Predict the 3D structure of the following.
Amino acid sequence: MSSKDRRSPTVPAGEGKGVWLAALEQGANLLQSTTPLKGFDVYVVGFHPAKDDPQMQMEAHHFCRVVNDDFIQCALFDGNTREANLIGIEYIVSERLFETLPAEERGYWHPHNFEILSGQLIAPGLPDAAEKAFLKRLLNSYGKTWHTWHTGRHDGEPGNAIPMGDPMLMWSFNRDGECDPALEQHREEGMGLDTAKTREQRQSLVADAHPQEGVNVLRAQFPGASPIPGVVDVEGA
């Protein structure tokens, strides 16, 4: 799987680093610990639409720490280079843990099966077999995602130079045709992907996919979108 650079679509507002900041950074590198950041070394890339405004869509680079078999926490960026902007967070829980949540809380958590089975979610740098084995572990899981900064889209849609407004609860795409084709194509070309091939390789996972809550949340917003095998809402199961 490709691991090509994806640069942030936005340069933050503000002036260059002054001497005092450069000195602070140097001191921090020598004397301070970054222990809480260690272990955020699992890297996956997908797309997020805002739940309340699904036309607001972004490519999201997840750098995650696997806490245990049921829980993962991720820092989200708009690229994978040193200049990438921190745009949000995502928590991922297993199906088992999701089922223990109160009904009201479940409405914050989006399903992951379409992202996996469609080939939309990728783990750059991993060989195909290792990527598939890892994503099989994520099958039937759920994510709770908040974006704090809309920096724009890699295909040219402008964003904000600094974080603006309230955090946005993000969702997952659950049908073909919900994600803007231009956004998908821009990543396809920029990262050297073959999503059709990836999808085909993952079809053996369909038999292990369970109906999930939240699959139909955005259905009315994308009336022309098409379902794929293995992605079913519990309401229609």
